[in-house]
Amino acid sequence: MKYAPESRTSVDKPLGHVDLVENLPSQNVPHFYAPRTPQEAALDRSINMKLDLIVLPLLAFNFMEQLCGIDKTNIGNAATTKFARDAHLQINDISNAVSLLSVTFVTLQPLSTIIGRRVGVKYWISFMMIAWGSLCMAHAGIKNRQTLIALRLLLGAAEAGFVPSVFFYLSTWYPKYHLGFRLGLFAGMYSIAGAFSGLIAYGVFQIHSSKYKSWQLLVSLCAEGGITIFAPLIIFLALPLKQNTAWFLTQTEREHSLRRMDIDVMKNFEVDEDGNAIKETRMISMRDIRDALTDWKKLLTVVFNILATLPVSAFGTFLPLIVKGMGYSGVKANLMSVSPFVVGAFGLFVFVYSSDHFHERSLHTVTSMALALIGLIVMYTSSDPHLRYGFTHVCLAGAFSAGPLIVGWLANNTPLLGPRSLIIRINGYSNIAGVIAGQLFKAQYAPSYGYPLKITMILIGVGMLGFVGIRTAYMYENHRRSKQIASWDEEQRRVEDRGENGRRGDQRWTFMFTY
């Protein structure tokens, strides 16, 4: 989409934390970045390839390494052993501990993410990894319920903000319809972690030690020790803080990377109260907060995302126990939990790739949830353990996709970085699903876990209907805006595009929502 630039360089007075931008467009503001020349397309391929080979693996590995430890998945693996007896735990202490981790993990996410944006994502991630690595190793010394609860609460606090900080960070590097697939690759590490966790647990449980229990070896050896202490150094040294300091990009690539994100998040087109073009910084304004907290469609999206991600929170921790309830031994149940997670990762990658390709979010989200629902229905209604185990794969093939698709959807519809960072932080409350899962999948419902599966099915159905409703609302709003601006002349469009009437970002009538 071509537009004629209008030169504007206003440096007559200081604007504090505000940077000036040149070459504002006068009309036809694009709603997302797309290369306009073969040269730009070639630069995109080069930049994306370097990001995919350097930035994304760094973050994804550390996400997988976080999840592959006792914090998210291995407590479920450990529960298939004599962990509860050795640590003098009561029947529901483990499920309650899962919920308690989610309490601090969820409530401290906004604060943690604010700190991360202020001090820099690379620095904050490095600190969090050292903290949670130390706390994970401390799990080997659990001897009673009080120690378990204290460590889980501290671990949740240490990990809070990691995922939303990374999601926001990636949204500042990849344009709108390059982002969803990368978010999926990153989030897919949850599924890969589940697979590795089962494999590692199975291998560790073959080790017989006179000094340590099998679950203590699992905690100490499963990555969440020395690797978590060492990995922050790599993040600190290799992860770039921003585009213009990225060591792996050429100067031309740095300039193009900045320009394409300026277009994609509409930073170019924001003006201050005096009409001066501005760029956003790490500062959050009161208007950013007001805009984020009054956008009912996005807030409802977060609420329904809690329901969409419930199977992930449940199976991410309790799948080994569910599989054990199908008749497999404790050690073998850990091995049998590997393949469903592998299928889940494959399903996730297919859904997010298709979503980016077709520039569509909501139907892909609902379809993935429907696939998970089908798996749950068979797991709930069937008494055949082999059939139930087979449809565990079907369930996870759809369950993992909703989370990254929703983050991509929210980012797509929040072009300004201030409100975007807040919305992604608020979306962190979708981890309340972990609290729900911990209270649903209690020991008294073993071995079939029929009641938790039934409630999970109902909640997923409600979430699907909710997303369909939000899609309808966005379609109606786009239709209303198209009808409103159809008769506008060039001057009216110019005023709207520049925000001179007080509307900005997705509030502008010329902005069309993704659905």
From TrEMBL:
<dbReference type="GO" id="GO:0016020">
    <property type="term" value="C:membrane"/>
</dbReference>
<keyword id="KW-1133">Transmembrane helix</keyword>
<feature type="transmembrane region" description="Helical">
    <location>
        <begin position="148"/>
        <end position="171"/>
    </location>
</feature>
<feature type="transmembrane region" description="Helical">
    <location>
        <begin position="299"/>
        <end position="323"/>
    </location>
</feature>
<feature type="domain" description="Major facilitator superfamily (MFS) profile">
    <location>
        <begin position="57"/>
        <end position="481"/>
    </location>
</feature>
<feature type="transmembrane region" description="Helical">
    <location>
        <begin position="365"/>
        <end position="383"/>
    </location>
</feature>
<keyword id="KW-0472">Membrane</keyword>
<protein>
    <submittedName>
        <fullName>MFS general substrate transporter</fullName>
    </submittedName>
</protein>
<keyword id="KW-0813">Transport</keyword>
<feature type="transmembrane region" description="Helical">
    <location>
        <begin position="453"/>
        <end position="474"/>
    </location>
</feature>
<feature type="transmembrane region" description="Helical">
    <location>
        <begin position="183"/>
        <end position="205"/>
    </location>
</feature>
<dbReference type="Pfam" id="PF07690">
    <property type="entry name" value="MFS_1"/>
</dbReference>
<dbReference type="GO" id="GO:0022857">
    <property type="term" value="F:transmembrane transporter activity"/>
</dbReference>
<dbReference type="InterPro" id="IPR011701">
    <property type="entry name" value="MFS"/>
</dbReference>
<dbReference type="InterPro" id="IPR036259">
    <property type="entry name" value="MFS_trans_sf"/>
</dbReference>
<feature type="transmembrane region" description="Helical">
    <location>
        <begin position="217"/>
        <end position="239"/>
    </location>
</feature>
<feature type="transmembrane region" description="Helical">
    <location>
        <begin position="389"/>
        <end position="410"/>
    </location>
</feature>
<keyword id="KW-0812">Transmembrane</keyword>
<dbReference type="InterPro" id="IPR020846">
    <property type="entry name" value="MFS_dom"/>
</dbReference>
<feature type="transmembrane region" description="Helical">
    <location>
        <begin position="335"/>
        <end position="353"/>
    </location>
</feature>
<feature type="transmembrane region" description="Helical">
    <location>
        <begin position="123"/>
        <end position="142"/>
    </location>
</feature>
